[in-house]
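Page 37, continued from 36.
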């Protein structure tokens, strides 16, 4: 990403710290949202398939309601699904500036894939609602034959669109997430920067682990969101069908419980597998916190399953959101820790740049005498000719003509046929200046 390299400047240590907080904030938005989209799309497709197979109306209704609930609406999809990735690209470009990490490239690819993923998923969502409207049109049998066949064609193509778009959306989303986690994983493993290719970067145990971790979290959050929206938000949904209510309740509780039971397993593997450099006391602290929160969640769900009620729906949802946030903080701390040495390089670069701007690190005043000794004395003496003429012979003509002397030194021209030409000593303007001053001020006393 050469383009990004041009707009990225070295950052101060404080600023790098701030960038880690910015990342945390955008992940607080992005991870829960994309979890819902992922869990919602999968569950909706799954229940739609079951519904079509068993022709159980509850499945079909649940399928449609899940996707409506988890995708919220189109503009939110664009804002929370796409902008955080763009921001993450810019932040990582700063954090990993001058490193050989390909993180930014993977995030960019993830961005390119998440756009069609969201388009397909929102198409799926709206076409499901559309199908619902079409199938609720009654009295079509009493219409003209022409209208009837037109209507059939139309609703069939709407159904086809539904069937394909949901599936394509899900595939694109998986690919986008795999690349997203590849980028994140690479960022926290400086040991792998600049080595390996896309295959080893993507199909890598740590990436699989992160994706698995994400999937468990995504289903837990989706289940929690279903519980929350169906049974708590605004007093809960008004069910006119008690059987459907029980159906949703049972499904949502078991999805949430099953998925959240997997989370500690992934945390465990992740903690054991993490290279020891990435672990710090605070990472352990957050890990423990998440485990405690999950334990409370299990108890709430267990109680609701036992009593067949939905009393703790909101508790479960908010605790899961809290656990997800704590996991994000934990991951960022690990990344912060892992990239510490790179951050030090960056902030040192920043300090240097700042010093240059302030003019602090200009090379100490150039000394005319020193330049003379090093660059001129091999050919010139004060009162004897050597390779070049004695200074006492040639300098008097430059009295009061310092500028001309400087011009000669910077660009010697042929003067005296008795001598060979003087080679260009290649001095910088300030150096030529200093040595000319020194010669004019000194030659008479030598
Ligand atoms: C490789 C040898 C060599 C070095 C090194 C060298 N000079 Fe010279 N210098 C000469 C020669 C030869 C001449 C005579 C050139 C001519 O007359 O065309 C000369 C001539 C001069 C003259 C007289 C010019 C005139 O108008 O007659 C000055 C002044 C001078 N050098 C300054 C310097 C300074 C200052 C340095 C160091 C930064 C330097 N030289 C380094 C070989 C050297």
């Amino acid at each position: 990403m050469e383009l990004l390299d041009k707009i990225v400047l070295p950052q101060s240590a404080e600023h790098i710290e701030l960038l880690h907080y910015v990342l945390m904030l955008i992940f607080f938005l992005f991870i829960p949202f994309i979890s819902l989209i992922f869990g919602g799309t999968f569950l909706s497709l799954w229940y739609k398939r079951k519904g079509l197979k068993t022709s159980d109306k509850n499945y079909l209704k649940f399928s449609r309601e899940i996707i409506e609930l988890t995708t919220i609406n189109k503009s939110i999809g664009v804002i929370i699904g796409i902008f955080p990735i763009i921001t993450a690209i810019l932040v990582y470009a700063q954090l990993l500036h001058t490193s050989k990490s390909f993180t930014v490239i993977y995030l960019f690819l993830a961005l390119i894939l998440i756009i069609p993923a969201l388009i397909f998923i929102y198409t799926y969502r709206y076409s499901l609602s559309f199908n619902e409207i079409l199938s609720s049109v009654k009295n079509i049998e009493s219409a003209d034959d022409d209208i009837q066949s037109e209507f059939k064609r139309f609703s069939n193509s709407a159904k086809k669109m539904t069937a394909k778009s949901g599936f394509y959306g899900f595939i694109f989303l998986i690919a986008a997430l795999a690349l997203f986690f590849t980028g994140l994983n690479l960022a926290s493993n400086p040991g792998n920067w600049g080595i390996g290719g896309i295959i080893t970067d993507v199909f890598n145990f740590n990436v699989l682990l992160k994706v698995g971790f994400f999937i468990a979290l995504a289903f837990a959050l989706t289940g929690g969101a279903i519980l929350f929206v169906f049974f708590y938000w605004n007093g809960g949904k008004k069910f006119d069908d008690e059987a459907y209510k029980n159906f949703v309740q049972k499904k949502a509780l078991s999805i949430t419980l099953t998925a959240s039971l997997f989370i500690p397993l992934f945390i465990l593997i992740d903690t054991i597998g993490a290279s020891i450099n990435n672990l710090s006391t605070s990472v352990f602290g957050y890990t423990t916190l998440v485990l405690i929160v999950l334990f409370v969640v299990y108890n709430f769900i267990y109680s609701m399953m036992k009593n067949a009620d939905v009393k703790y729906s909101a508790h479960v949802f908010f605790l899961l959101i809290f656990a997800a946030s704590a996991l994000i903080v934990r991951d960022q701390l690990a990344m912060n820790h892992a990239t510490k040495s790179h951050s030090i390089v960056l902030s040192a670069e920043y300090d240097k740049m700042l010093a240059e701007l302030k003019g602090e690190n200009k090379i100490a005043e150039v000394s005319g005498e020193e330049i003379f000794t090093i660059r001129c004395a091999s050919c010139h003496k004060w009162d004897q000719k050597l390779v070049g003429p004695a200074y006492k012979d040639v300098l008097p003509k430059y009295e009061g003509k310092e500028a001309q002397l400087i011009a000669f030194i910077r660009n010697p021209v042929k003067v005296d046929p008795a001598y060979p030409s003087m080679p260009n000593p290649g001095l910088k303007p300030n150096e030529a200046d200093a040595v000319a001053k020194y010669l004019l001020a000194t030659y008479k006393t030598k």
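The chain has a mean pLDDT of 84. Flag for discussion at group meeting. The pocket of heme C is lined by residues 375-376, 378-380, 387-389, 394, 408-409, 414-416, 419-423, 425, 427, 435 (CB under 6 Å).
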